[in-house]
Structure formats: structure tokens, C-alpha cells
Amino acid sequence: MKTEPWIYGLAKQMLGEDALLDEDKCGIQLRDYLEDIETFANLANGSIQSRQVVALALVHFLDRKTLIKKITQMEKDIDRLKGLED
Description:
Blueprint: H1 6-15, H2 17-21, H3 26-43, H4 51-85
Helix pairs in contact: 1-4, 3-4
């Protein structure tokens, strides 16, 4: 079995395990996001070993998730309003 990357283990500690279970796919999306960050670090012959970097990644990930929800809701509202005009 593949061991969990340090970056993801630390993110889970920062958020708390329960926070990842609150929403569908959040844990998977976060893992994929953090793995992408680690992949780019590896391309530069490095690795993410900083709590600050993980914290910034979490802030960005959570902000992005919130914005996507708002955009999705706005699109639904627009579609609903378009239906009222017809």
C-alpha cells in the first residue's frame, strides 16, 4: 500500500480528519490538489516540507471551493431567472 504523502498528512492534521468528511469528494479533491503541488516541487528536484506552504495551499483550496459553490449557485439562479422570462 502506498504511504500517505507528508503534505497530505499534515493538511489532515491542520483541518482535522472530520473536516474532510463533511462534503462529498472533498478529501479526494484535496489529496489531488496537494499531490499536484508536490509533483511540481519534485520537478524542481524539491519537496514540500513546510507547514507554511501547506497552510497556504489549504487556504487557497478552501477559498477556491467556496468560490466554485457560489458560481454554481449563481448559474442556477440565472437559469431559473431565464426560465421565468420565457
